[in-house]
Amino acid sequence: MTGADLTTLGIGGKFLDLLVPEDGNELSLMMRRIHSEGRSFSVLGGGSNVLVTDEDMETPVILTTSMKSVRINREGERLLVTCGAGVALRDLMAMTLREGWSGLEFAPGIPGTVGGAVVGNAGSRYGTIGQSVHSVRLMRPGGASTEIGGEDIEWGYRMSGLQREELSIVWEVAFSFRESDRNAVLAEAKRSAAIRGMQPVGRRTAGCVFMNPPEDSAGRLLDLAGCKGLSVGGAVVSDIHANFIENAEGASAADVAKLADVCRERVSDIFGVRLRFELKSIGMSLGDCGG
Ligand SMILES: Cc1cc2nc3c(=O)[nH]c(=O)nc-3n(C[C@H](O)[C@H](O)[C@H](O)COP(=O)(O)OP(=O)(O)OC[C@H]3O[C@@H](n4cnc5c(N)ncnc54)[C@H](O)[C@@H]3O)c2cc1C
After folding, report:
1. Quick check: CB of 49 below 6 Å from ligand 1?
2. Complete domains list, the chain, with CATH
């Protein structure tokens, strides 16, 4: 399997040591082995927010998408839904909408897994996933699992305190949803889905490349800086939304990284704003601030 197979951008070389645990026990054993060998590793969920190196990768890559357990406990009007990190956010959201449970109405159109969403506090202007997290089970380097309460995790714009836990993996998340009126939940989800019309849905992208700077929009600055349509190799800045880079024609990871740098320089030169990467990377680094 390659980065191209396992990411929404469709870019990246071979994973020579791809590990695919199906549950916490398997993950623990794998992490114990890696730790005892003194090696590092990378984590991949749905691959919808990452740029993977063009080079073949010898470093182990742990793919979470087979950890798909779901357990439901009802406590009065509160639903506690415990999911494996590899459950697709789309599937979890569909279940909540079907049942009339409130909490994920902001999520239509956000691809990827529950684990990736929680680590990066995925969201939209209508809400974020951290608001519904009851607790997280984290596998630490060496393979020991710990549980952290949602209130003990720092949640910010496209960030969580979990990102500081180096070489740890979110392997299970318990969500707390509220039983609500099904029509109201559906109407709210429909309102959130409407913003997708302004994004290049159906094209090969990895979502927004840059985070919004305080009180502004990265897409607006990139658009005003004339970035729409700029290209490097097969990578092109979307003509629909300037904060998306599309793999239009056999782009390499190097093309995408270079194009992102060109855009960031333009915004910096014109507006004096240094955009920070929302896009993450595996096997390579992106610019000098994040990724
Ligand atoms: C068309 C499109 C629209 C999008 N719209 C939005 C949006 O509206 N809002 C939004 O927030 N995002 C959006 N995104 C970005 C992306 O979908 C989210 O960031 C998503 O939550 C990433 O989840 P993933 O499983 O794909 O993570 P990946 O892309 O696989 O990984 C992202 C990062 O999280 C780490 N990671 C993944 N899983 C785990 C885990 N279990 N434990 C520890 N670390 C982990 C990876 O190492 C990597 O650093 C969009 C993307 C696309 C392609």
Report:
1. yes
2. 3-63 (3.30.43.10), 70-197 (3.30.465.10), 201-282 (3.90.78.10)
